[in-house]
Design brief:
Layout: H1 2-14, H2 19-39, H3 44-55, H4 71-108, H5 123-131, H6 133-160
Protein name: Sensor domain-containing protein
Transmembrane segments: 25-46, 77-103, 123-145
Organism: Phytohabitans houttuyneae
Length: 169
Amino acid sequence: MWRHSVRGMGAFFRRPFTVRTLRRLAYALLSPFAAVLLFVPLLAGAGGGLERARARLVPGPPLPPPARPAWPRSAGYALASLPTGLLVGAFFGYLCLLLPYWVSYPVVYWGDDLSENWGGPSWLGAAALHFAPAPVMLFVGPWLLKLATSAQVGLARRFLSEGRVTIAG
């Protein structure tokens, strides 16, 4: 019985370093660019095809081709995905910038006077406080990433695949 839980812990610690997680991260980091490009009216017709190509980065069945006419669905998707794409891309982009800072903080500020920093007055307290988010987000981040990209692909599947879906839902 305990072997099953140990195996589960191994998968938990391997998850941030898998190809699936890196592909989801690429999908999330491309979200703001896709959202802005889809919002341009000239690209609204081709935007659905670009989004279906980007959705292939996330594991799962591919998006089927849209019903004709495709441009209303693409325009509706552009309006619906703009806020979510910008939010997801900004959040995970910021996380990618902060993770190296959190990890390197104890090394970069080794021996400096950190009495005025958060976590001070000791160096150990300041270094621990600035390093603490790194392991948490390294192992919680992939789960948040899976949740965010699954929601975005679900939105794309709802708007850009066959079926009777309108902008109102």
